[in-house]
Write a structure and sequence with these properties.
Elements: E1 20-22, E2 28-38, E3 43-50, E4 58-62, E5 66-69, E6 73-76, H1 80-83, H2 111-124
Parallel strand pairs: 1-6
Antiparallel strand pairs: 1-2, 2-3, 3-4, 5-6
Length: about 130
């Protein structure tokens, strides 16, 4: 069932906790639990989603995985099946696989690992 989004477009700065999160094909994924950002540098990292259908209860969607943010819902760029594969925030996130096409910039840490760790800190209250 595809939800109709009629709310006004919003930025990560005004995105509210509890806003519905849906997949690109309209499947309910959960609700916004936290916005992960470095506001002082105007960097939006993604959102932590309250996904009560999971044992851990939370998943992380990177900014690149978000298609649209509106006042009534966040739409992911992932379909329902892809949404079910979102990573859970964790204290020590699993290592991500790197392929030959991946480019590593010296001095830049593992961004996703850092984001997942910060998401875990928010969820667990360690911030």
């Amino acid at each position: 069932m595809v939800q109709s989004m009629s709310g006004e477009p919003v930025s990560y700065l005004t995105l509210r906790q509890g806003t519905s999160v849906v997949s690109s094909d309209g499947e309910q994924v959960g609700e916004v639990a936290h916005v992960l950002a470095a506001e002082e540098q105007d960097i939006f990292d993604g959102i932590v989603i309250d996904a009560s259908w999971l044992p851990g209860g939370h998943v992380f969607a990177d900014a690149a995985q978000i298609a649209e943010m509106r006042s009534d819902a966040v739409t992911l760029a992932l379909d329902g099946e892809g949404s079910r594969g979102l990573p859970q925030p964790s204290e020590n996130p699993a290592a991500m696989e790197a392929g030959p096409d991946d480019v590593v910039d010296e001095g830049v840490g593992d961004d996703l690992r850092d984001k997942l760790r910060r998401a875990w800190d928010l969820v667990s209250g360690n911030y």
